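Progress against Task 2.4 (sequence-to-structure conversion) is shown through the following example record, which the project officer requested during the mid-term review.
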Amino acid sequence: MSTFLQQIVNGLSLGSTYAVFAMGCTLIFGVLNIINMAQGAFFMAGAYFGLEATRLGLPVPLALLTAAAGGGALGVLSELVVFRTIRRRGGHKWVGLVASLALARILVGLAQEVFGTEVQGYPAALNLTASWEAGGVRVQLIQLAIMAASVALMAGLYVLLQKSAAGRAIRTVAFSEDVARIVGVPVGRTMTLTFLVAGALAGAAGMLLGVLFNVVSPFMGEHMLVKGLTVMILGGLGNVPGAMAGGLLLGLIEVFSVAWVSSAFRDAIGFGLVFLILLARPTGLFSGFVERRA
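Structure tokens generated for the chain above:
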């Protein structure tokens, strides 16, 4: 029983980072019906922003805000330089997907030039190594901090989308850009805000996962992008609550597969179960929170 509970704790801490990242991917898809392939690069950049902030002596909460701000700034950059330019020129949405993939490769290359290709870790001075044990279950301070930060980010996104004027604007644009313009919603600024929030979530998730495993590298975002897209589909395209649930579920699946089968089959089992779930329910675990009408 203690082993089962231990894996629950491990899975929730890992799944929390997946959920935060996937929410950003889902938000962009739900609003604009596009996929920003640069989200993984924003995730990686956030890990480095947080790393440099901690090296400068900033406390972890401020470092996390720095990571989120850096990811958000890159998100806005991708919207202004890539997606808005393509929209104005009448380009197909698939052009934006390829262009954002190119942007991701540029950012990975820049990270290699600036930080090198070696794996780096967060300073030991962060003092997040404390842990508590009860009934054979060991809970680390770092796990609690990550889960608390993830819950705060999820709650913040919920409040933004459901309780604020900006959230109403985002939901209106998600429903129909034409309707949004008719009722006076500033569509361009709303799209920029969407990319800002999505990029901030990616950057924050990058630091959270970097701290959890104490690993930061220029290539960490590529694997995370696959996880994020998987969670986005698993939870239901355009469904932010579904992305939260899907991220937690994928984290639990992965840690249980490592504990009970083998670490070599971690991704195979995780994606295999996701595959079976989608065969049974192709729309994902939840229906999308946006219904588009002709």
